[in-house]
Specification:
Elements: H1 4-11, E1 12-16, H2 24-30, E2 33-38, E3 41-46, H3 48-60
Antiparallel strand pairs: 1-3, 2-3
């Protein structure tokens, strides 16, 4: 059986809003993801493959993804 927390972690990235400031449009253009603002945080939602690619992209742009 799949662990729900593990599945959720593989399909989303949560960051402070200012972490993706200036990158949101590029994220939505380059990747098949949804970027939602939730208060002071941003949730990037997509398939596990897209989330892995987004994570690598963010890391290359100096944003730490836990």
């Amino acid at each position: 059986m799949t662990n729900a927390a593990r599945l959720r972690d593989s399909t989303q990235i949560r960051l402070p809003t200012d972490a993706v400031s200036g990158l949101r449009d590029e994220l939505e253009e380059r990747f098949v993801v949804t970027v939602r603002r939730e208060g002071s945080r941003v949730r990037i939602i997509g398939s596990p493959v897209e989330i892995k690619s987004v994570s690598e992209f963010l890391t290359r742009n100096g944003i730490t993804v836990a």
